[in-house]
Amino acid sequence: MAHHPEQGWSLLCNGVLLFEDTGELLPDGRVIAPHRPLASSQVMTAA
């Protein structure tokens, strides 16, 4: 594993490149788009 927060990415032991914006690049070349959490004003909570 390699962690480079100054560059905004980490290399996981399974070969996945994980980016600070939550996007991912898989070892087979597939891309997982960034999946940012909802803003706190959009989060619903159970009563």
Molecular structure report:
- With 47 residues, the chain is an all-beta fold.
- The chain has a domain at 2-32.
- Helix content is 0%, strand content 28%.
- The protein is built from no helices and five strands.
- Strands 1-2-3-4-5 form a five-stranded antiparallel sheet, with no helix packed on it.
- β1 (2-4) and β2 form a beta hairpin.
- The chain is flat and about 20 Å long.
- The model has no long low-confidence stretch (mean pLDDT 78).
- InterPro entries: DUF5999 (IPR046041).
- Pfam families: DUF5999 (PF19462).
Essential attributes:
47 residues, mainly beta, five-stranded antiparallel sheet, 0% helix, 28% strand, flat, DUF5999
Which segments are poorly predicted (pLDDT under 50) over 5 or more consecutive residues? none
General form: flat
Major sheet: order of its strands?
A: 1-2-3-4-5
Category from helices, strands and their pairing: mainly beta
Tally of contiguous helical segments: 0
Cα distance spanning the termini: 41 Å
Q: Secondary-structure element sequence?
A: EEEEE
Helix content: under 10%
* Radius of gyration over all CA atoms, rounded: 14 Å
> Count the strands?
5
- Give the amount of beta strand, in percent: 25-35%
How confident overall, as mean pLDDT? Answer: 78
The largest sheet is: 5 strands, antiparallel
